[in-house]
Write a structure and sequence with these properties.
The complex is a heterotrimer of chains A (325), B (333) and C (286). By secondary structure, chain A is α/β, with parallel strands linked by helices. Chain A has one domain (7-263): 3-Layer(aba) Sandwich (Rossmann fold), CATH 3.40.50. Chain A contains 12 helices and 12 strands. In chain A, helix 4 packs across helix 5. Chain B has 2 domains: 3-99 and 179-277, Rossmann fold (3-Layer(aba) Sandwich); 107-178, no CATH class. The longest helix of chain B is centred in the middle third of the chain and has 18 residues, at 193-210. By secondary structure, chain B is α/β, with parallel strands linked by helices. Chain B is globular. Chain C is mainly alpha-helical and 286 residues long. Chain C has one domain (12-31, 56-274): MetI-like fold, CATH 1.10.3720.10. Helices cover 74% and strands 0% of the residues of chain C. Chain C has 12 helices and no strands. Chain C has helices at 2-10, 12-31, 65-101, 103-118, 121-131, 138-148, 151-165, 168-175, 180-216, 227-236, 245-273, 275-282. Chain C is elongated, with a radius of gyration of 23 Å. Classes of the chains: A alpha/beta (325), B alpha/beta (333), C mainly alpha (286). Chains in contact: A-B, A-C, B-C. At the A-B interface, helix 7, helix 8, helix 9 and helix 11 of A face helix 5, helix 6, helix 7, helix 8 and helix 9 of B.
């Protein structure tokens, strides 16, 4: 019998379908298709959701944050159904527990407002401290991300560098001491050398403060470095999920293999030997029943084109592929 | 090997006056480089290092507040030398796309959304080489086929193509007239990893087939590793190191380059990687002496006051660092 | 403050517009020092041409044209100001709220807005005014003009809010715990200010031009001095035909100058706010 509250986040068959207008008809577009995973409350971890654009990873992140309504499926946070929370419950409880970090630090803050405005608002609205204690508290949180209040007080977002602004964004998310941070491509707009420092910070937050981080990215190199577990998404499906050393170390799913091979290694001895073939027309490869990767899979079989592959537990991870049946 | 484009002691600054305050941004400060015909020359650097400004100056046709204070940029096509900074607009038009071509960042937005791909190609080709529509379509078909791009994109509109395909079509458009010199500005940024691979492979193919020269500007060292023959590393408006790709990636000498290479995550280890402390300097108020000295763990007294000249420490390998220059001269004495 | 100084320096149209409006304000201020009451007739000799004693001459009622003009400008602008306050106030609030909240509220409000937009305003005003003949005060006119002019701009504010709602900093504000009202007022309103400013100008223009139209037709409060009523009374006493042009020239000239002043200010403002011209301003010459 499972103890209550042992699961922090449980996503079951999360599905989001968008209706796309095409002339007079509309098409259904499965942005997220039956995504299922859970995070353990007792073991803080960094869980990465990786995929290319169109994989549905951002939509999934928005669903978990409560920003996007679920078409079907169940999302439970600390054993409460997120979809059933009222607006005031969300404001007083859920948003305290779950906070976002967005991709573009300069879009995260309004260019017309000073950047510390958001820090103070977060402190006041959740009644973290009284007015007198706010400065100290905010300075403390900023120190955790390598900044200080005196550096950023009164400044507008465009006066800071990308790295600094993103740190402020992370600090703002930390103010309510959330149990879960959902970070959507937090480092993709930063220079390569800055990425390491931010990603190191995530690891430290998990180790020292027990914060769970849902790290959404298309960059497998930082995913490998940061994450404990990883889920690979392809057009709405989770096609492989498990410990990151296994999934990226010895990928089983052909799509994961393709992704891993396509990362340009900064090593002239490891250049690609084969040319890759890409889809040309956008509508090519749309779901026609069967596996969504069938059009590009080097190991495709007949059954792949006809039936949806099952999710199979193999070598410590879940793979959605007929090859491992 | 002949030199196809050369910059000599180039200084290009942005000079502005706003609210009564004058500001000079030293974006390109005393840069000299030579690109050999037929090679892929990579310019690596992070945001704010001046690489976009360097590109603007190399291409010419830039406007105030960007000004070239000193130095020259020269092209050499068919043994004819042209000074890029003083040619008039007509000669520049003649050069562009016939001899020099440019793949911009985010080139997907370059395609006209209301024209079919074949029409876009025709407009473009006939602007430089007047020919009938059928001929240009045939030329386009052959070119795309040679490059391994599906021919059915010709009758499509840009929005019907996937993002990666649009990028590759734009590259094909920029190179169909076989320019001798191609400038590619962050051609793979914001692309998915598999698409990125397709783009890099396409550029490689074009370069190998036509023997053209590519100047590749990107911060992504992985892209340089797969494409570039030589790499010049830019920091705060200056070249700090230049060598062939293997040397830069496996045996860098300048402390900044070393940090840069060490901080790249690799897919075979999860050990903690070190990040460079501090931030790149603002170019309107650069540090005195060597611009990297505030962040350099090996900074000496001399580094704070004297700006190191870039020196050849081996044939084909130049570094701008006092420590490296000293080590080299000790080794040779 | 630095923005205002910059505006003055760079935009000739803003400069001229601002100067004109300052003169107008001076004129209004002078109305409080007028030696004559606005409704006093036969205070001065009638129908005298402009001279040193009577700057703009006198009219057929025995009133000094110059001092009447100060009252007229004051009343017209106050009425227009009231119309703008009511009209833009309603427009902004309704537009922003319906845009942000969306859903059924948005649909209901949008239908109301659309019905107001298609209303023919001038005929309606004329109808109301003739029914209320003689009992329409300037204040009532201002309120009515405001109630007729809020619809179209509210559509624009709504569409601005619709796009602002999707921007990431709105989400940041939500997760920072801000309530809907707070978000709309603190985060989104600052973006609307350029539109608001341009809107205020056009609101003034609308109100003044409608007031003048109504007054010329004799449908407004003819006992009060306003630009329109001055023109009306001038026509009533056949100023044109009897070659007493100054009686009409004053209010007409004033209205033209005021309209031009407002227009130039809004032109200067919108060019200044355009981000493309910023780069030109930054250049160091030579």
């Amino acid at each position: 019998m499972q103890q209550p509250n042992a699961t922090l986040l449980h996503a079951e068959d999360l599905t989001k379908i968008f209706n796309i207008q095409q002339g007079f008809s509309s098409k259904k577009f499965h942005a997220v298709d039956k995504a299922t995973f859970s995070l353990d409350a007792n073991q803080p971890e960094i869980f990465t959701i990786a995929g290319e654009s169109g994989s549905g990873k951002t939509t999934l992140a928005r669903m978990i944050l409560g920003m996007e309504r679920l078409t079907s499926g169940v999302l439970r946070y600390k054993d409460r159904n997120v979809a059933e929370l009222s607006g005031s419950e969300k404001r007083s409880w859920f948003f305290k527990e779950v906070q976002p970090v967005f991709q573009d630090p300069f879009a995260t803050f309004s260019p017309l407002k000073r950047i510390d405005h958001y820090l103070y608002e977060t402190v006041y609205n959740y009644k973290i401290t009284n007015k007198a204690g706010a400065d100290d508290y905010i300075n403390g949180v900023l120190n955790e991300v390598g900044l200080s209040l005196v550096e950023i007080k009164g400044r507008y977002p465009n006066e800071l560098s990308g790295g600094q602004a993103q740190r402020v964004s992370i600090a703002r998310a930390l103010i309510t001491r959330p149990s879960l941070i959902v970070a959507d491509e937090p480092v993709s707009m930063l220079d390569a050398s800055l990425r390491m420092s931010i990603v190191n910070m995530f690891r430290k937050l998990k180790d020292d403060h027990g914060v769970n981080i849902l790290y959404i990215t298309h960059d497998l190199a930082t995913a490998y470095y940061t994450a404990d577990r990883i889920a690979i998404m392809l057009r709405g499906w989770i096609v492989e999920m498990g410990p990151v050393e296994r999934v990226l170390g010895e990928p089983l799913h052909p799509y994961t293999r393709l992704l891993k091979q396509s990362i340009p290694a900064a090593d002239p001895d490891k250049m690609w030997t084969e040319n890759v073939s890409l889809t040309a027309i956008e509508s090519e490869g749309q779901h026609r029943g069967g596996c969504k990767f069938a059009g590009r899979c080097p190991a495709v079989m007949d059954i792949c084109r006809k039936k949806e592959p099952p999710l199979i537990l193999h070598q410590e991870r879940l793979v959605k592929c007929f090859l491992y049946e | 090997m002949s030199i196809i484009v050369e910059a000599n002691r180039l200084k290009a600054y942005y000079m502005t006056r706003s609210y009564g305050v004058e500001r000079t941004v030293q974006a390109v400060d005393n840069i000299s480089l030579q690109v050999q015909a037929g090679e892929v020359f990579g310019i690596a650097g992070e945001s704010g290092c001046g690489k976009s400004t360097l590109l603007k100056v190399l291409l010419g046709g830039f406007r105030p507040p960007l000004k070239v204070i000193e130095g020259s940029v020269k092209y050499r096509f068919d043994n004819v030398e042209t000074d890029a900074l003083i040619i008039n607009d007509a000669s520049r038009r003649d050069l562009s796309w016939n001899k020099i071509s440019y793949v911009p960042q985010g080139s997907m937005h370059v395609l006209n959304p209301v024209r079919r791909i074949q029409d876009i190609f025709h407009d473009f080709i006939s602007a430089h080489r007047p020919m009938r529509k059928q001929d240009s379509i045939e030329m386009t078909q052959n070119y795309l086929r040679d490059l391994g791009l599906a021919e059915n994109v010709l009758t499509a509109y840009p929005h019907q193509l996937s993002g990666g395909m649009r990028q590759r079509v734009t590259i094909a458009l920029a190179t169909i007239l076989s320019p001798k010199l191609i400038f590619a500005d962050e051609p793979t940024t914001a692309l998915d990893v598999v698409v990125q691979r397709g783009v890099i492979q396409l550029l490689k193919e074009i370069q190998q087939k036509e023997g053209s020269t590519v100047v590749l500007i990107t911060h992504d060292m992985g892209v340089h590793a797969n494409l570039a023959n030589r790499i010049a590393v830019l920091y705060a408006g200056k070249i700090v190191e230049e060598a062939d790709t293997r040397t830069i990636l496996q045996n860098p000498r300048h402390p900044y380059t070393q940090y840069l290479i060490k901080s790249l995550p690799r897919l075979d280890e999860r050990t903690e990687r070190v990040s460079i402390p501090g931030r790149p300097p603002a170019l309107d108020n650069p540090p005195s002496g060597c611009r990297f000295h505030p962040r350099c763990p090996l900074a000496m007294d001399k580094c704070r006051t004297i700006d190191p000249e870039i020196m050849n420490i081996r044939p084909g390998h130049r570094v701008a660092c006092h420590l490296v220059t000293e080590e080299t001269s000790h080794a040779t004495t | 403050m630095t923005t205002l100084k910059d505006l003055f320096r760079f935009s000739p149209s803003f400069r001229i517009g601002a100067i004109i409006l300052i003169l107008v304000l001076v004129l209004i201020g002078l109305s409080f020092f007028s030696p004559y009451e606005p409704d006093a007739t036969r205070a001065v000799p009638r129908n005298k041409a402009p001279s040193a004693e009577f700057l703009l001459g006198t009219n057929s009622n025995g009133q000094d044209v110059f001092w009447m003009l100060t009252f007229a400008v004051r009343n017209s602008l106050v009425m227009a100001g009231l119309a703008v306050l009511i009209g833009r106030g309603i427009g902004v609030m309704l537009g922003m709220i319906s845009g942000y909240v969306g859903g059924t509220l948005d649909r209901v409000v949008s239908s109301i807005v659309d019905s107001f937009i298609v209303m023919p305003r001038l005929p309606l005003l004329i109808l109301i005014a003739s029914i209320m003949r003689g009992q329409m005060t300037m204040v009532m006119l201002g309120v009515m003009l405001g109630l007729l002019d809020w619809a179209y701009p509210s559509k624009r504010y709504r569409s601005q809010i619709l796009s602002l709602r999707e921007r990431e900093f709105t989400q940041t504000a939500v997760f920072a715990g801000m309530s809907t009202l707070k978000i709309v007022l603190k985060e989104h309103l600052p973006f609307l200010i350029p539109f608001l400013l341009a809107d205020i100008v056009s609101g003034f223009l609308f109100a003044i031009s409608f007031e003048v139209t109504l007054s010329i037709l004799g449908l407004s409060d003819l006992g009060t001095q306003s630009i329109g009523t001055m023109i009306y009374w001038g026509n009533y006493y056949n100023a044109l035909l009897s070659n007493r042009l100054w009686i009409l020239a004053a209010p007409i000239g004033a209205s033209i100058i005021i309209v031009i002043g407002f227009y130039l200010m809004s032109l200067g403002l919108s060019t200044f706010l355009d981000p493309r011209t910023r780069l030109e301003r930054l250049q160091v010459k030579g």
